[in-house]
Amino acid sequence: MTNGVLDEVYQxxxxxxxxxxxxxxxxxxxxxxxLVRHGHxxxxxxxxxxxxxxxxxxxRGIQRISAGEWRDPLGDPVRTGDxxxxxERQLTERPWREVLVQWWPRLLPGVAxxxxxxxxxxxxxxxxxxxxxxxxxxxxxxxxxxxAGLGYWAARWQPLAPAGKGPYRAGDPRSALDAxxxxxxxxxxxxxxxxxxxxxxxxxxxxxxxxxxxxxxAPDRVAAIVEAAVLRFGTHGHGxxxxxxxxxTAPNAIARVLPVLPAALWExxxxxxxxxxxxxxxxxxxxxxxxxxxxxxxxxxxxxxxGLHDQDSHGIKFIDAALDVHRRTGDQAVLDVATYANDLxxxx
Length: 348
Fold this sequence. Notes:
The protein is mainly α. Helix content is about 60%, strand content about 0%. It has two domains: about 5-155, no CATH class; about 160-348, no CATH class.
């Protein structure tokens, strides 16, 4: 990975806000990290140029948030500027791993924040930091990007409806996703859709226990959730291509943070990964599956180039998640789904 280019991108974006027009997320730092990681550092600045009209200025703060009085402003988007400044200060005073481990259990219950973009942005930032540490010391620009992700997550913090307890009725994650009940009203925004989960019959049971092998290692359990969400996009992504991307990218972000976390935080992280995937599936999955069109053989080396060519940030991030799955499984179907997903998203 070319460290300097990504640092340049983060520096270029440091004065931009995490959102525009209210709820629309700034995908530039996340997509840029994926592009650079997959060898497209030469084109990433041009991609940012094309994204420029979707950037807004970093919001101003209203009132300082103190380390001991963080609960009240949690989940208040009006305080976004204050949260960005808070984490900027925290990461100046303490090592980034220490700050992350302290705040992860506080933020994790609000995994739905910003349509899950809060945790996704943090996941990309953590991966960039870990990559940099392999070559030496993490740069200030990467630490600052983690702060921006944490601040965004805190400002948009949104808990999901409570989950139940007990064994899940479907053993593997793919079958479990098929069993997740759909919210009844699917013509509103994500906040209204997720609010329906509290009264949705079967939601608590669906979200209450993570499917799969409970004896497996934590990274393998989360990876199985990501794989299931990626493959299910092939038959259900037509329902809402952009939003169903997050059923895969949200748990994948959590997978990227697991190596930094102490073992005591693995189980709640796995539970949050599953709950996020199930919630997005419930909110946006169509009632019926549709066979995916046949695809030619896709070369993984060409897949991100396709995403770069088509310029869509959601396509880029889904391809990034799919390439993680393919690296683990070698399954050609994963690449086929990623190609299909990118085409669906671009067609809009």
